[in-house]
Design a protein that fits this description.
binds zinc ion; 606 residues; globular; alpha+beta; single chain
Length: 606
């Protein structure tokens, strides 16, 4: 059975290999290297997607409220103190305090998150907070670059500031953001390393950070290329090129698996720099690196879509992924990992139009990040998903860790991950209750999505159009949805192909209604080939995790019993299997609260 189960993962490897062949062919041809690719799909603006009630809307709302409540003096304190200025108020506490190991590192991320929530909601208090933060931060930037002196993370922190200021500029919140970005770059320049350097290597002359400098200069190009696109300032193009991690990217593009032993989140994040480098520079090697890298990550992912046990990639085929289910609880660095995964799959989906990147995004959405416990007002935050046998959800012991910077950003990004457009039509990627507004054929169009997916298998979509319009409504048919069905205004359409976008092209009229029915597909997925009897149960995109008693022995279960799990008849988010040993309860990760759970379980042969 594991043969069938792992096919999807191998498909991606084959697909990545094709990308590498295409790159080598393009590289050996002269000139027109990237000519064959159509233009990437466009993202919608943040405000063009409004979610209805459901887990995506809830998590975005919670995180908006959190970043809006952050104490501004506490956020600014590391910048003020390091500039030798008066710094009223208290420290925020945790990882990024003035005298902690990476001062101010989440400030830029929260500026990004606030800007994105303003773009979604138009909330005046959010707008005002971004303006105050940009201006108060600007007042701490001095020409000497005091902030970056004796700073172990100059590149890491500068990159996040660039992202925050770009979002404030791009989303129209503050007209001083662009000038502040220019001053920030001048201040940081003398302290940035000469090139993309592996973790642990970077230290300024005269400063020995060899034991504890984990600067991540290889993640910089993405924001630098975007800054170049927005401001036209050549310094950003130069910095983008300077920090491209070519030794990593060329290895991946060649098909060499350069992942094992590398820090997981930051190297997945670096692949977004490769994708943005492809978009900005047109060099297909960078696209091949991003696609191959993604395929290699996918081949060593958990069934949840998460990856990188103990924050590192393992040796493929070594059985290390399965072995990681015992002995350590750090299975997937969830908010940071999900943030990087969403960005990378969004790039690759837009560039290749391959719907399977959306399938992968959806697995990470429902099985990891949506199940994160909300960040507490005191900074306690969810960090690792735990896939060991008797796991429980928990906060990181430290306050305001890295994952408190990324969770508010990824929850805002659900809006721009839902639909994409091109000149011919719209692509629906995530099936969540939402109102979508977009422009097609130069007219304002609306699409409302009603669904309880993935708990229910039906998705209803209704168009609102000022006049009849010819365009293509492309619906993602997940790779596992072998027998999906489609109705347009009640009339059956041919069975759509799974693993693709179903292109519905016609003259659409207002109130036209499309109903997609996805099958209740069940499968078992082994953690890796070395552990064929350690499996996760999937119902569509959902991993159903076994609820277990603390410290009780968890008995193996028969494969076919597990596959027969029945959803609670009253509509609860719980599944059950009756076995000879009693009743086994299963829940999706986002519905697990304080219970002990097991993401994987031992199965007996059928
Ligand atoms: Zn993190």
């Amino acid at each position: 059975m594991s043969d069938i189960i792992n096919r999807g993962r191998r498909d991606f490897l084959a697909f990545g290999a094709l990308a590498a062949v295409a790159w080598r062919q393009a590289a050996s041809a002269t000139g027109a290297a990237a000519a064959a690719q159509p233009a990437p799909l466009s993202e919608l603006a943040y405000g063009q997607v409004q979610f209805g009630a459901g887990p995506l809307e809830r998590q975005a709302r919670e995180n908006h409220r959190l970043v809006l409540s952050l104490d501004e003096d506490a956020l600014l304190r590391p910048f003020r103190v390091r500039a030798g200025q008066r710094a009223p108020g208290q420290e925020l506490g945790g990882w990024y305090d003035t005298y902690a190991f990476a001062p101010g590192a989440t400030f830029g991320q929260w500026m990004s998150a606030l800007s994105r929530y303003y773009a979604i909601t138009g909330d005046a208090a959010t707008h005002a907070k971004v303006q105050r933060l940009v201006r108060a931060y600007a007042a701490t930037v001095d020409a000497r670059g005091s902030f970056y002196r004796h700073n172990r993370f100059p590149a890491y922190t500068y990159d996040k500031l660039v992202g925050g200021l770009l979002d404030a500029e791009k989303l129209g919140l503050d007209d001083t953001a662009r000038a502040t970005l220019a001053r920030t770059t001048r201040a940081a320049l003398p302290y940035l390393p000469p090139r993309a350097m592996p973790r642990n290597e970077h230290a300024q002359p005269g400063e020995d950070f060899s034991q504890h400098a984990w600067d991540e200069s290889y993640t910089l190009p993405e924001n630098q290329f975007q800054a170049w696109g927005i401001t036209g300032e050549r310094i950003h193009l130069q910095l983008g090129r300077r920090f491209l991690y070519d030794e990593f990217f060329t290895a991946l593009a060649r098909g060499d698996n350069a992942l094992p032993g590398k820090h997981a989140y930051s190297h997945v994040n670096a692949l977004s720099s490769a994708a943005q480098a492809y978009l900005s520079l047109g060099n297909p090697m960078y696209l091949a690196a991003a696609q191959q890298g993604f395929a290699m990550i996918n081949a060593q992912s958990f069934a949840t879509g998460g990856w990188g046990p103990d924050e590192h990639f393992v040796i493929p085929g070594s059985g290390a992924l399965g072995a990681s289910l015992e002995g350590q609880n750090k299975s997937f660095e969830t908010p940071c990992g999900a943030y990087a995964h969403f960005k990378l799959t969004r790039y690759l989906l837009r560039i290749t139009r391959d719907s399977r990147y959306g399938d992968s995004m959806e697995r990470v959405l429902y099985n990891t990040v949506l199940g994160a416990i909300p960040i507490q007002p005191d900074g306690h935050a969810f960090y690792y998903s735990d896939y060991t046998g008797q796991a429980r959800k928990a906060f990181h012991p430290d306050r305001w860790p890295c994952c408190s910077g990324t969770l508010p950003m990824v929850a805002a990004d659900y809006a721009i991950s839902t639909c994409f457009t091109d000149a011919q039509g719209i692509y629906v990627n995530l099936y969540a209750p939402a109102q979508i507004n977009w422009t097609q054929n130069n007219v304002h169009c609306g699409l409302s999505i009603e669904t309880d997916y993935p708990y229910a298998s039906g998705v209803s979509m209704t168009l609102r159009l000022p006049s009849p319009q010819l365009f293509t409504l492309n619906l993602r048919i997940p790779n596992w949805a072998r027998d999906a069905s489609l109705l347009i205004n009640g009339k059956p359409e041919p069975t759509p192909q799974s693993g693709q976008f179903a292109p519905l092209r016609r003259e659409w009229h207002s109130a036209d209604r499309v109903e997609l029915q996805l099958p209740d597909a069940r499968s078992l997925e082994s953690v890796d080939a070395a552990h064929p009897d350690t499996v996760a149960l999937l119902a569509g995109p959902l991993v159903l995790m076994r609820i277990v008693e603390a410290d009780a022995q968890v008995l193996p279960i028969r494969r076919d019993d597990l596959l027969r799990a029945q959803r609670d008849r009253n509509g609860g988010h719980e599944w059950q299997v009756t076995t000879g040993d009693g009743v086994v309860k299963l829940k999706p990760f986002l519905d697990i609260d304080a219970e002990h759970y097991s993401a994987y379980q031992m199965v007996l042969p059928s």
